[in-house]
Amino acid sequence: AVVVVGSCMTDLVSLTSRLPKTGETIHGHKFFIGFGGKGANQCVQAARLGAKTSMVCKVGKDSFGNDYIENLKQNDISTEFAYQTQDAATGTASIIVNNEGQNIIVIVAGANLLLNTEDLKKAARTISRAKVMICQLEITPETSLEALMMAHSNGVKTLFNPAPAVADLDPRFYTLSDVFCCNETEAEILTGLKVHSPADASRAAQLLKGRGCRVVIVTLGAEGCVTLSETEPTPKHIPTEKVKAVDTTGAGDSFVGALAFYLAYYPNLPLEEMLKRSNSIAAVSVQSAGTQSSYPYKKDLPLDLF
Ligand code: ADP
Question: Which of the residues 119, 247, 253, 304 is marked catalytic?
Answer without folding.
Answer: 253
